[in-house]
């Protein structure tokens, strides 16, 4: 295992220890209850694979991406490893610029710890909110295996304490809710394992976005600190302790009109790339939401009640700190992605059937643009050639 520390702009070891220290305790369960939850989630993940494949008509072949049922510290460690993997090129550039500066050593000692603490505080906040996550860029670490190289690399995480906490708060049937969550996350795993080019395309876009960042290390550290301080209005330790409602999160996204992490280092070129990334994430999230609800009536008896309560919970009010962190992390945009993406998928499936919708996975050129997500008719006209398309009844 490679150390998470080192001379990076972010002290990753400190990020892990900070996030783990301030992550809130999960719901109270006995040891036997915990074992039963883990066993049921694993069983549901296996069952969800068949349900998702049958509905989506996407065949990912034999899967070598593991399903891991984790606690909050486990989710934190996995995500830090993933962040470090994706950010390696940017960090390498930052190290080069830092080595040319007389203050480079001071930045290593101070700046890395500052950003390590800030990243850790944000992860502590998120660690109690994420129900599940397909890690597309997941290096294998001790206790956290990942899939094979290339397009099949990755792992599926199910955060057991958060699933239990939300099902209790919603007062829904645990068996049904756990399968419902697994349907969503398994859809993400199927997307990346059945569409070989998707992972490489997404990675290419992210790296192109990061390559446009031309901010010196000291400035970047200061911007992160200013963003976090301005939005929370308090120090990170207080932020981590405040109680806020949980909700599922997959990845940060842009929030129009608000300051998010991605706004810290944007250029015009980055905005173009970010629009494409936003469209892809909207598609992936909307597809997963559509599948979980479409499959639900056949295998999740109480899916209607679950969706109603879950949607109401997503949209209910939040406190000042919660709103600030939503803006910083782009979580409000995430909720719009679920809605806009699901509406796009539902419209296309209704018009063309599942086989017609699956043309979206043909190549990067058939992915919807941000405008097409908002107006599915544009995508239908561009990809299918005309607007009057009868459905094939395969939805």
TrEMBL record:
Question: What is the annotated signal peptide range for this record?
Answer: none
Looking up InterPro entries in the UniProt record yields: CHP03883_F420-assoc, Zinicin_2, Zinicin_2_N
In terms of Pfam families, this protein maps to: Zincin_2
Top-rank taxon: Bacteria
Protein name in UniProt: Coenzyme F420 biosynthesis-associated protein
Species source reads Streptomyces mimosae
Taxonomic lineage per UniProt?
A: Bacteria, Bacillati, Actinomycetota, Actinomycetes, Kitasatosporales
């Amino acid at each position: 295992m490679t150390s998470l520390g080192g001379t990076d702009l972010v002290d990753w070891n400190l990020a892990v220890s900070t996030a783990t220290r301030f992550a809130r305790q999960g719901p109270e369960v006995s040891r036997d209850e915990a074992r039963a939850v883990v066993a049921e989630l694993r069983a549901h993940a296996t069952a969800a694979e068949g349900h998702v494949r049958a509905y989506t008509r996407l065949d990912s072949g034999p899967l070598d991406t593991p399903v891991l049922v984790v606690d909050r510290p486990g989710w934190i460690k996995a995500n830090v490893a993933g962040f470090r993997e994706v950010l390696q090129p940017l960090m390498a550039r930052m190290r080069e610029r830092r080595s040319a500066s007389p203050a480079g050593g001071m930045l290593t000692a101070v700046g890395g710890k500052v950003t390590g603490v800030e990243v850790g505080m944000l992860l502590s906040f998120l660690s109690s909110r994420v129900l599940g996550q397909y890690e597309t860029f997941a290096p294998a670490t001790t206790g956290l295996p990942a899939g094979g190289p290339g397009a099949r690399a990755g792992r599926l995480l199910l955060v057991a304490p958060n699933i239990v906490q939300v099902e209790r708060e919603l007062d829904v049937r645990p068996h049904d809710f756990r399968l419902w969550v697994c349907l969503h996350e398994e859809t993400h795993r199927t997307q990346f394992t059945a569409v070989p080019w998707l992972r490489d395309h997404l990675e290419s876009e992210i790296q192109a976005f990061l390559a446009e960042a031309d901010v010196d290390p000291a400035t970047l550290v200061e911007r992160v600190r200013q963003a976090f301080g301005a939005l929370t209005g308090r120090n990170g330790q207080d932020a981590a302790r405040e109680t806020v409602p949980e909700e599922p999160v997959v990845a940060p996204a842009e929030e129009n009109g608000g300051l998010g992490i991605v706004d810290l280092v944007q250029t015009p070129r980055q905005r173009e790339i970010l629009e494409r990334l936003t469209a892809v994430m909207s598609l992936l999230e909307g597809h997963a939401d559509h599948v979980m609800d479409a499959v639900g009536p056949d295998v999740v008896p109480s899916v209607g009640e679950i969706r109603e309560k879950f949607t109401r919970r997503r949209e209910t009010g939040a406190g000042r700190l919660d709103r600030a962190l939503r803006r910083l992390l782009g979580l409000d945009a995430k909720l719009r992605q679920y809605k806009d993406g699901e509406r796009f998928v539902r419209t296309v499936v209704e018009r063309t059937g599942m086989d017609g919708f699956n043309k979206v996975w043909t190549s990067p050129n058939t992915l919807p643009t941000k405008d097409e997500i908002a107006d599915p008719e544009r995508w239908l006209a561009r990809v299918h050639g005309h607007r009057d398309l009868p459905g094939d009844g395969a939805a």
